[in-house]
C-alpha cells in the first residue's frame, strides 16, 4: 500500500502556481451550409478526470491513452503536479502519470476550489494520506450540486469529517469496508466511494451506485491496477479491499456525449456526417430518441452516419440515470426540437439551471416556453437566424454552436472558451467537415 509522504520535504503552504483561466474567446459562425465528411469522437472527459484522480492510489507509473486535451483535464493534471506528481503528455492523447512522490502538504487548494471535478480527489487523497483538507469545489453554474452524498459515503468507510473555515477536514485511522447506500444515483459520489474503497480493509458494497459508462471505465482502470471490483455496469458494486495497486495501462472510452452532440449537428445541418470511433452500446437511448425525432441515420460497427433527409417530428424527453437519457445531452436535443414539427417537452429533473440556453435560442428565433426550472416546451419547426449569443456553460456552448451552424446568417458566440472544457479543438474539427467557424 502507498504510504503518505512526509510533509517536511517542502515548506508548509508551498504550492505550484495554478494555471491561468482560458483566454476569453468567441466563435464567429456562418451557418446554413452543408456539412459533409467524417469526424472522430474523442476520449470521454468524464472518464478521463476520475481516472487521473485514481492514479493517486497506484504504486507505479500509469499510461493512459485516448485522453482528450481539454482545459478540465489540464487543470486536474496541474493539481496532481502541485502535489509533486509527475504527469506528462507522452503522446498526442497519451498521458504518463507517476504519483509515488505525491505530498499532501503542497496541494493547490486554490486550484481545487476553482474546479468542480476536483471533488473526485477527495476519496483517493483520503485513502492515500488519511488526512486531507479540501475547500468545497466550485467552478460550475448549472445548479446546486451538494456534496453530502460524497461525505456520507466516506463517513461510512470510517472517515471523520469536520468543517473548518469553509473547508472540509477528513481524517481516518484507516478506511474499513462497509455497506454504502447512496440516496441518489450520483456519478461522482459513486466514483469517490469506489476509489476510497479499493484500498480499504475488507469488503465494501455500494448500493444504488451510478452505472454510467464513465463509472464503468474507472472501475475497469482500477481493476487493471489490481483492485477487485464486481458488479460493474449494475447499480450494486462490490469491492474487496486490496493491499496495493500497481502501475498499469488503460485506454479511455469514447465520449458518448460528444457522439450525441455531433449526431444532432448532422440532423439539423444540410449534408451527411459520418461519426467514427463510437461505442454503440453506450448510445442505445440516444439512438432511440433520434429515431423518435425522425432523424435519418445508419449504424455500422463503430460508425454512425447521420444526414438531414428525415422529416423531423416532436418528441418527449426526460433525462435519467444510465441507461436512461444523459442530462448532458438534453441541451443539444433542445436545438433539435426547434427543427421538429409539433411541440416537444423536455424535462431535466436533476439540475435547476440547465435550461438557460433556451433564452439564447429564442434570440435566434426559437419558439420555447420555460415552464419551470426543469421543463421546457419547444414548438417547431422554426427557422433560426444568426445573432449575438453567449455560451453560459459547457453543454450550452456546444449546443449554441449547433444552432449557429443551422442558422441563417452570422452568429457570434461569446464565452466560447467554456467549450474547451469538454470538446477538444471543436472549431478545427468542424472546419474539416465544411463548417464556417472562426475563433477570435
Please describe what this structure looks like.
There is one protein chain. The protein is an alpha/beta fold. It has 2 domains: 43-251, UDP-n-acetylglucosamine1-carboxyvinyl-transferase, Chain; 256-439, Alpha-beta prism (UDP-n-acetylglucosamine1-carboxyvinyl-transferase, Chain), CATH 3.65.10. It contains 13 helices and 25 strands. The strands form 7 sheets. The protein has a 4-stranded mixed sheet. Helix 10 links the parallel strand 19 and strand 20 (342-347). The radius of gyration is 22 Å and the shape is elongated.
Provide keyphrases for this structure.
single chain; 440 residues; alpha/beta; UDP-n-acetylglucosamine1-carboxyvinyl-transferase, Chain; 2 domains; 26% strand
Overall radius of gyration: 22 Å
Order of strands across the widest beta sheet? 23-24-1-25
| Domains, number | 2
| Protein structure class | alpha/beta
CATH top level of the largest domain is: Alpha Beta
Q: Spans with pLDDT under 50 lasting ≥5 residues?
A: 6-19, 139-144
Q: What name does CATH use for the topology of the largest domain?
A: UDP-n-acetylglucosamine1-carboxyvinyl-transferase, Chain
Give the biggest sheet.
4 strands, mixed
Number of helices: 13
CATH hierarchy: architecture of the largest domain: Alpha-beta prism
Mean pLDDT: 91
Helical residue percent?
A: 25-40%
Work out the strand percent.
25-35%
E-strand count: 25
**Whole-Å distance between the termini?**
49 Å
Q: CATH homologous superfamily of the largest domain - what is it?
A: Enolpyruvate transferase domain
Query: What global shape is seen?
Result: elongated
Amino acid at each position: 500500500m502507498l504510504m503518505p509522504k512526509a510533509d517536511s520535504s517542502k515548506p508548509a503552504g508551498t504550492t505550484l502556481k495554478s494555471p491561468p483561466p482560458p483566454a476569453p474567446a468567441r466563435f464567429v459562425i456562418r451557418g446554413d451550409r452543408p456539412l459533409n465528411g467524417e469526424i472522430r469522437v474523442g476520449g470521454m472527459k468524464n472518464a478521463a478526470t476520475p481516472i487521473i484522480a485514481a492514479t493517486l492510489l497506484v504504486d507505479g507509473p500509469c499510461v493512459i491513452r485516448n485522453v482528450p486535451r481539454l482545459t478540465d483535464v489540464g487543470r486536474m493534471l496541474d493539481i496532481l503536479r502541485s502535489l509533486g506528481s509527475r504527469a506528462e503528455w507522452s503522446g498526442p492523447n497519451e498521458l504518463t502519470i507517476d504519483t509515488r512522490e505525491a505530498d499532501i502538504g503542497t496541494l493547490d487548494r486554490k486550484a481545487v476550489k476553482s474546479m468542480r471535478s476536483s471533488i473526485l480527489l477527495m476519496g483517493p487523497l483520503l485513502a492515500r494520506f488519511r488526512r486531507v483538507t479540501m475547500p468545497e469545489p466550485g467552478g460550475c453554474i448549472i445548479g446546486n450540486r451538494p456534496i453530502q452524498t460524497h461525505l456520507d459515503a466516506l463517513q461510512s468507510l470510517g472517515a471523520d469529517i469536520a468543517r473548518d473555515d469553509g473547508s472540509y477536514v477528513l481524517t481516518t485511522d484507516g478506511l474499513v469496508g462497509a455497506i454504502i447506500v447512496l440516496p441518489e444515483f450520483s456519478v461522482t459520489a459513486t466514483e469517490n466511494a469506489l476509489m476510497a474503497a479499493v484500498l480499504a480493509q475488507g469488503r465494501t458494497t455500494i448500493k444504488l451506485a451510478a452505472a454510467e459508462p464513465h463509472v464503468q471505465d474507472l472501475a475497469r482502470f482500477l481493476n487493471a491496477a489490481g483492485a477487485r471490483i464486481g458488479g460493474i455496469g449494475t447499480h450494486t458494486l462490490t469491492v474487496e479491499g486490496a493491499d496495493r495497486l500497481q502501475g498499469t495501462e488503460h485506454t479511455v472510452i469514447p465520449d458518448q456525449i460528444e457522439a450525441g452532440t455531433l449526431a444532432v449537428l448532422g440532423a439539423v445541418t444540410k449534408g451527411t456526417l459520418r461519426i467514427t470511433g463510437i461505442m454503440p452500446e453506450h448510445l442505445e437511448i440516444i439512438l432511440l430518441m433520434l429515431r423518435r425525432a425522425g432523424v435519418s441515420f445508419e449504424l455500422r460497427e463503430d460508425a454512425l452516419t447521420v444526414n438531414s433527409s428525415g422529416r423531423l417530428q416532436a418528441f418527449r424527453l426526460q433525462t435519467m440515470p444510465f441507461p436512461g437519457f444523459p442530462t448532458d445531452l438534453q441541451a443539444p436535443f433542445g436545438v433539435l426540437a426547434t427543427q421538429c414539427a409539433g411541440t416537444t417537452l423536455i424535462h431535466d429533473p436533476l439540475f435547476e439551471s440547465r435550461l438557460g440556453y433556451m433564452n439564447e435560442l429564442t434570440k435566434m428565433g426559437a419558439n420555447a416556453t420555460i415552464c419551470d426550472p426543469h421543463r421546457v416546451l419547444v414548438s417547431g419547426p422554426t427557422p433560426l437566424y444568426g445573432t449575438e449569443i453567449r455560451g453560459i456553460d459547457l453543454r450550452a456552448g456546444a449546443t449554441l454552436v449547433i444552432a449557429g451552424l443551422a442558422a441563417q446568417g452570422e452568429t457570434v458566440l461569446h464565452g466560447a472558451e467554456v467549450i474547451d472544457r469538454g470538446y477538444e479543438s471543436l472549431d478545427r474539427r468542424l472546419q474539416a467537415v465544411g463548417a464556417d467557424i472562426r475563433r477570435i
